[in-house]
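User: Can you model how zinc ion sits in this protein?
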Amino acid sequence: MARVMVPVVTDQEIARRLTSPEVSNLSVARDLGVSWGRVEEVRRQLELPTYRRGRRVPESTWQEAVQRRVKETSDGHAEWTGNRHPNGTPLLSWRGRTQTAYRVVFRLHHAREPEGNITHVPDCQVEHCVAGGHLEDRRMRDRRRAAGDAR
Ligand SMILES: [Zn+2]
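Assistant: Here's the modeled complex, given as structure tokens:
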């Protein structure tokens, strides 16, 4: 008689999937082929909050806030899906502070504060593009022009 091998799912595997209150017991149970009750048991052992449908977990960093709102396009640019100023400028409001998305994306991409205005590099002609590598500040413009690029 052939023995059916049932893969053993450990509590650790279940725990690894229960990363936030946005993950439901049912989805984990389905993925791993275990019962809902087993997942709930692990959740209680870990003292994780109960799943609530549609609950938004607050973003903990600027980076996370940006990542949720930037959509890279297939042609190498990036679209802002968040709020905008009436003139179209992408804006990010996070923890009571509002900045242009350009400044936040620039800071994350270049790991420094931008100097002066942020504009798009000459090779990016997409209005309101928020690709980190397509933004330049005064320091970068000065350096580019000093190198003979008059654009
Ligand atoms: Zn671009």
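A couple of observations from the model: Residues 107 and 113 are 5 Å apart (CA to CA). The longest strand covers residues 91-94.
User: Helpful, thanks.
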